[in-house]
From TrEMBL:
<dbReference type="InterPro" id="IPR053083">
    <property type="entry name" value="TF_kinase-domain_protein"/>
</dbReference>
<dbReference type="InterPro" id="IPR000719">
    <property type="entry name" value="Prot_kinase_dom"/>
</dbReference>
<dbReference type="GO" id="GO:0005524">
    <property type="term" value="F:ATP binding"/>
</dbReference>
<protein>
    <recommendedName>
        <fullName>Protein kinase domain-containing protein</fullName>
    </recommendedName>
</protein>
<dbReference type="Pfam" id="PF00069">
    <property type="entry name" value="Pkinase"/>
</dbReference>
<feature type="domain" description="Protein kinase">
    <location>
        <begin position="1"/>
        <end position="303"/>
    </location>
</feature>
<dbReference type="InterPro" id="IPR011009">
    <property type="entry name" value="Kinase-like_dom_sf"/>
</dbReference>
<dbReference type="GO" id="GO:0004672">
    <property type="term" value="F:protein kinase activity"/>
</dbReference>
Length: 355
């Protein structure tokens, strides 16, 4: 449960209430990655939000694992098959629905729903006991119903500076006009959330690609090292942030480029990661108008997954057959292959002669 004081029916609290009600009524698969509001009520000048019990959050999972029994659900596969990464793909899809896919619940009021989260960070992505990630804490959010020919008027409500986009440093008097859409382009405010999502995805990849194997001597959490690098060789006002006065910090781009080295060259996983690196580059565009939208993120993730599965199905089978086939100068002729036998977790094809 979350309780918030309501000084004179504060509009921020009421906005959070409306966002939570709308996202709790989403009927698509995106609902699986958004917190559900069970009920809300006022008592003693406080608004009380009641949610299902959630075990932990992504910040604790990444930096303080193991947390109860959550980690085993998310740690047993390599990228891109890893369940935690698949959940992050779900979070990206949920964010896109929050931005432009909410349904107008008011009869007689015509227009589309426009919503921004404005405080995406690991601590605001909750993790259930079975490993589901859910976007939560809409306390900084902005929601409007915009007339068919109208444009949203966004009031910036910045959250955690670490995950905030570069435009968060604009003087307050500029935000009222800067975050409004110009022409037919996507509202700049929506792309603010895309930057925050890129920060979170980067941290998740650092965590997944630097995990220790069982039995290894424990070492420093790689995210702690990454956090330190965000404080180095930069002005104090940019400490902890993913950008400085010149753009995305070099330690961020270097870290992301190094993800590629974790995979065998030209393997399906390597090609997948190359696509993800390009995606992060688009999400980390310093200038808001050059940054891709949340729907672009979803589309590119889907394309990357489709290409990975297509190449994996072809490449893995051909490779495994070559590995298990007799030498070319042998008199033996292979008569056939079948997929891995039931219960065989190795996923290797099996020759007829071994059945």
């Amino acid at each position: 449960m979350k309780s918030v004081k309501i000084p004179d029916r504060d509009h921020l609290v009421l906005a959070e209430q409306e966002v939570l009600r709308m996202v709790s009524n989403i009927e698509s698969s995106a609902a699986e990655n958004i917190i559900t509001l069970l009920t809300c009520y006022t008592w003693h000048n406080e608004m009380h939000f009641v949610f299902p019990y959630i075990e932990t959050d992504l910040f604790k999972l990444l930096r303080q694992e193991p947390i109860n029994d959550v980690s085993p659900w998310l740690n047993d596969q390599a990228l891109p098959e890893n369940e935690l990464w698949k959940e992050m793909v779900g979070v990206a899809s949920a964010l896109s629905v929050i931005h432009t896919g909410l349904i107008n619940p008011f009869e007689g009021v015509h227009g589309r729903v426009f919503a921004c989260h404005f405080d995406l960070k690991p601590a605001n992505i909750l993790v259930t006991a079975d490993g589901k990630l859910k976007i939560g804490d809409f306390g900084h959010s902005n929601i409007q119903i915009v007339a068919p020919q109208g444009k949203p008027k966004v009031m910036y409500r910045g959250g955690d500076p670490k995950y905030a986009a570069p435009e968060s440093r604009l003087p307050l008097e500029q935000t009222e006009t800067w975050f409004q859409p110009h022409g037919d382009e996507t509202a700049p405010a929506l792309k603010y959330d895309v930057w925050s999502l890129a920060c979170i995805m980067t941290e998740v990849l650092i965590y997944l690609l630097n995990r220790q194997t069982p039995g290894e001597v424990p070492t420093e959490n790689p995210l702690v090292r990454f956090d330190r690098s965000l404080d180095q060789r930069t002005q104090s006002e940019f400490n902890g942030r993913f950008f400085d006065q010149r753009g995305v910090k070099e330690c961020v781009t270097t870290t992301i480029e190094a993800f590629r080295d974790r995979f065998s060259p030209e393997s399906p996983a390597s090609r997948y990661m190359s696509t993800i690196i390009d995606l992060l580059s688009g999400m980390f565009q310093y200038h808001n108008h050059e940054r891709i939208s949340s729907q672009d993120v979803v589309d590119k993730l889907y394309e990357a997954e489709t290409a990975y599965q297509d190449s994996r199905d072809t490449d893995n089978l051909a490779f495994e057959i070559r590995q298990h086939s007799a030498p070319a100068d042998d008199d033996f002729k292979e008569i056939g292959w079948v997929p891995a036998l039931p219960g065989n977790r190795s996923e290797e094809p099996v020759s007829f002669d071994k059945m």
